[in-house]
Amino acid sequence: KVVAVIMVGGPTKGTRFRPLSFNIPEPLFPLAGQPMVQHPISSCKRIPNLAQIYLIGFYEEREFTLYVSSISNELKVPVRYLREDKPHGSAGGLYYFRDLIMEDNPSHIFLLNCDVCCSFPLPDMLGDYLLSLLNMLCSLYFILACTNCNGFISPFPFAEAHRRYGGMGTILVIKVSAESANQFGELVADQITNELLHYTEKPETFVSDRINCGVYIFTPDIFTAIQGVSTQRKDRANLRRVSSFEALQSATKTASTDFVRLDQDILSPLAGKKQLYTYETLDFWEQIKTPGMSLKCSALYLAQFRFTSPHLLASGDGTKSAKIVGDVYVHPSAKVHPTAKIGPNVSISANARIGAGVRLISCIILDDVEIKENAVVIHAIVGWKSSIGKWSRVQASAEPSSASDDAEGDYNAKLGITILGEAVTVEDEVVVINSIVLPNKILNVSVQEEIIL
Ligand code: GDD
């Protein structure tokens, strides 16, 4: 059996997602019409012999109760939310629930970060058991029949995955631009064996353009590795306690011995020890830390629907339908006027009302929004219950803003996006460009490059 664990983090991690994280935990924010966490959950469904999916986080239990019960029913796979009493780190959180996770006696545990957007090639990472066996027999034959043993090329490269590597874990890896690599865990792998040789988390100087995608498969030995880190820390803390000067410091350190980060505390020290391997994806991959990135990722998932779930995309067929351009999702309860023109990259959530002559391009329209006649929304996120007046424009500027890049908050402005929080009213004929508007505001004058508090 196999289980999957998705790390959803908690409210303190969601600050960059404001103002959208005010009323919904970031993992439940809709991308392409489905909660962010549903994309990895749906991918887990493709894993053979999947027994359970656990979401581990430190959000309040009630925030996930409804969602996990409805998604369990829909996918016919048990999904459970497990709440940590405090953040234990990306590996500590997994370890905290080890007894529950091991209840099904799984041979493998998939571990997924919630805030990444990709095709989650999970069954490929695990590898096909029979092909692995064939590959092994072929390599054995090659070694016996040939003197140059390094020349073996696998006849079934698809099987070059976790089962064949035989290590404790396999990490999904992607090649990114050298300039962006330092925002992630950079790693070096052996080109022939795929063994992880070196790992540095967000290094200051360039190490490699191959990065950690935050998607892993482990054997249950991962728990022993995490326990090893905690034990080492406790021992060190006990030693320190001997010194009276350090007594106070020691108390603090003991309290945090169960906080273990997967990247720095586990992957880095285990690199080069024949325990960890890599699996490189050539598909799409992005990290979703800001609303701006959620718009980009919504587009990626909509494009993926063309192959995985075409029935979810609006077709624009029929005389009563609006004109649809490119990939668009419209919730069945939303009402879109036939003279509106929608797309590409638009997702419209439940009970939204889109009026006559409205033009929507690259945007996420959340539940209960009303967009009145002839309004235009381009490259924007419109919060729940907001209303946009007739002939108004809510958009990003044509050119990305030149705002300074030192603060995290400027990231959205740099990307060029407008975000309206919950229940914002934009009155008729008002233009809102590259701005972030906090909930419950009424805009009766046009604004540009502003944060309306
Ligand atoms: N349950 C729980 N408890 N989840 C946590 C905790 C915790 O205490 N801390 C972090 N997480 C979750 C986050 O929600 C996220 O899904 C994942 O664990 C990793 O978060 P971080 O530890 O904050 O790392 P990061 O997102 O900055 O970078 C990691 O992911 C990148 C890929 O997106 C690193 O592993 C990078 O190397 C990697 O490139």
TrEMBL record:
Pfam families: GMPPB_C (PF25087), NTP_transferase (PF00483)
InterPro entries from the UniProt entry: GMPPB_C, Mannose-1P_guanyltransferase, NTP_transferase_dom, Nucleotide-diphossugar_trans, Trimer_LpxA-like_sf
GO MF assignments: nucleotidyltransferase activity
Residues in Nucleotidyl transferase domain copies: 4-126, 158-246
Sequence ranges assigned to domain Mannose-1-phosphate guanyltransferase C-terminal in this UniProt record: 324-452
Superkingdom, taxonomy of origin: Eukaryota
Signal peptide: none
Family statement drawn from the similarity comment of this UniProt entry: Belongs to the transferase hexapeptide repeat family.
Name of this protein: Uncharacterized protein
Organism per entry: Tetracentron sinense
